[in-house]
Amino acid sequence: MQPRSWSSSLTNKTSKTVKGLQVTIMGNENGTWIMYGVEWEDPECLHTVKDAIAYINEVGFLPLFKNDIPGFSLEERTVPEYWWCGDPKVDPWEWREELARSGELAYGKFFDKKAGFISKKWLPYFANYRREGYDFDALWDDEKASRRQKKIMDLFEEEDEIYSNEIKARAGFGKGGEKGFEGTLTSLQMKTYLCVKDFRQRRNKKGEFYGWPIAIYTKPETIWGYEHVTSRYSESPEASGEAIRQHIRDVYPIADRREYGKF
């Protein structure tokens, strides 16, 4: 893989070798956002949604954007110029909507409070490790969940999927109400109690669609069933966490403990 970046500023870059692949290490410089990636002709380049699903299932889990582990992101496996181009065939930002609704992957803020994907196979490991073996009701009963988290999760006792703006309003966040909606919603994703199921436009009173597609949240159990999501509860959370760390070491041996510890 011959990595490349897309930006008006291309200074201060370094490189590392990851599984025999040369990966460019860059970042936000002087307020300029720099995208990382590869050429379209590169054999490691992901060209379609199907390619992305296959790769994520192969590696098990993958952040959306570049992070401290070189090569460990969808961004670094795609063409930089195609991000936000608006063509769903080649735009990885558009892909995330199809990936979320595919039913093959969980999408949400799972990695250091940032967006990414977890395969069906690996979701039970994350659920057991992040939840420490607790269903949300048990977490609340043991006084380990916040009142804000409870107000959001109570909504999903009545409905399987809810628009993000509706969650905010119905759980009492916003002007004159609870504070910290985004942080609370992120914390529930980090613990794998919620994920993004789809992105859809809202409807007006006439039933007409309008505006940009927005996130629709659900519980992973709604997608894959309770038995599957909790199938690692029989082992200790520490064992599931070590399985995740070992998998990162196997797939991305360049990562050190400080880097994969965040995940």
Model description:
- This protein has 263 residues and is an alpha+beta fold.
- It has 2 domains: 3-121, no CATH class; 134-229, Orthogonal Bundle (Arc Repressor Mutant, subunit A).
- Helix content is 34%, strand content 21%.
- The protein contains 11 helices and 10 strands.
- The strands form 4 sheets. It has a 3-stranded antiparallel β-sheet with strand order 5-7-6. The protein has a 3-stranded antiparallel β-sheet with strand order 8-10-9.
- β9 and β10 form a beta hairpin.
- α3 crosses α10.
What number of structural domains do the residues give? 2
Distance between the termini: 24 Å
Largest sheet: 3 strands, antiparallel
Compute the number of strand runs: 10
- The computed structural class is alpha+beta
Number of H- or I-type helical stretches: 11
Helix proportion range: 25-40%
Provide the succession of SSEs.
EEEEHEHEEHHHEHHEEHHHH
In angstroms, what is the radius of gyration?
Answer: 19 Å
Q: Mean of residue pLDDT? A: 88
Q: Which strand order does the major sheet show?
A: 5-7-6
Q: How would you describe the shape? A: globular
- The share of residues in extended strands comes to 15-25%
Low-confidence spans: pLDDT under 50, at least 5 residues? Answer: 8-26
